[in-house]
Amino acid sequence: MDYQVIVIGSGPGGYVAAIRCAQLGMKTAIVEKYNTLGGTCLNVGCIPSKALLDSSEHFHNAEHNFAEHGIDISKPKANLTQMIKRKAGVVKSNVDGIAFLMKKNKIDVHTGVGAFVDKNTIKITPADGKEKTITGEKIIIATGSKPTPLPFAPFDKKRIISSTEALELKEIPKHLIVVGGGVIGMELGSVYARIGSKVTVVEFLDSIIPTMDGTMGKELQKATKKLGMEFFLGHKVTSIENKGKEVLLKAEDKSGKQIELKGDYCLVSIGRRPYTDGLGLDKIGIETDRGQIPVDNHLRTKVDNIYAIGDVVRGAMLAHKAEEEGVMVAEQLAGQKPHINYNLIPGVVYTWPEVASVGYSEEQLKKDGRAYKTGSFPYKALGRARASMDLDGLVKILADKNTDEILGVHIIGARAADMIAAGVVAMEYRASAEDVSRMSHAHPTYMEAVKEACLAATANRPIHM
Length: 465
Description:
It contains 13 helices and 22 strands. The protein is an alpha/beta fold. The longest helix is centred in the N-terminal third of the chain and has 25 residues, at 80-104.
């Protein structure tokens, strides 16, 4: 065999799997369809969207908050071209970093579409140049996902767009219609709302960010309404038409009442689908289940030397989940016994305020019939939040009613994305709410809200409320 391990796909799951395999002494190769490494996350997903989110938040603060801080400037103007240019620079530095890590770890990079010839042989077809084949003892599929279109309104990449095109717009939309109030829709919707677009969100379910705790959706909707975002919840989109210079969207609520919305762009963000096109799974006898590659608890497919990780398998489509799975497979191949607690994979929405959750939601606990108690604490009662003018948000702790073990941590507010790591640590070590409430938290910090929420959950005795 040419390699001990071949990884197909260089997103967070793929490149991390390759690095860990190399660290463990395996001769490793990675196959990537595109000319840059990093997959969706680094090129057209996590990293570029956060770059635009940060730029738009700086603009929003300059326009609305600087004067209160005693910073007098003339009225700022949003330069979308420069925001996109800066974003491209951030992306380049990150993908260049991955290329460096491949060289550092002596991982061979093969550019082109990778497809199975048999269970040990991969044919690589570059965009230009000759085909070649490589062989490997073990193969890890990490080909990621693509945006899901509406069946009656495919992406035309002009007016009806996916998140990929939303990161490359040449103008600030006058009216951006967003179909889907999940993570991607809310993040990119808030980018354009901050820099002057009218943004309307149409969501089929009755709440935004519906996979998270219900309190988080309600609080985020209140916060983003302050940006001027408008919401039509419980509405089913029935048609989207590109009319040339505008888009016409029709939707109806549960009673059948119809609405029409006109905008210059429509971002469809209803989810993502596993991407296995051109992989040649039929050559090795692997069939997908609703697009996903079936795997066992060790992430092994029905073919004993082939594994699959990340967005192409079950579970949340999150970069850090894919990374953990990449490490898990690599360490298993080295004879170790790694483990992932999927309940403790955090989820984050990078709006402002940020939203972050780990563990069970209140809705899940109710559905499971589990006895629980809850404690919450608002940001507006925090000295640190008052100092920074970040008063929107709260921390919500869910704990077992009998044992006090923390079952869920849900945060909406400034720096929630970073704070949730403390919740993951507490839950990995099966801490009780009282355990956390008795730990010293630095003052003044946002993390004090976690301590206070734990006090509220333990004995309904927060100090500052």
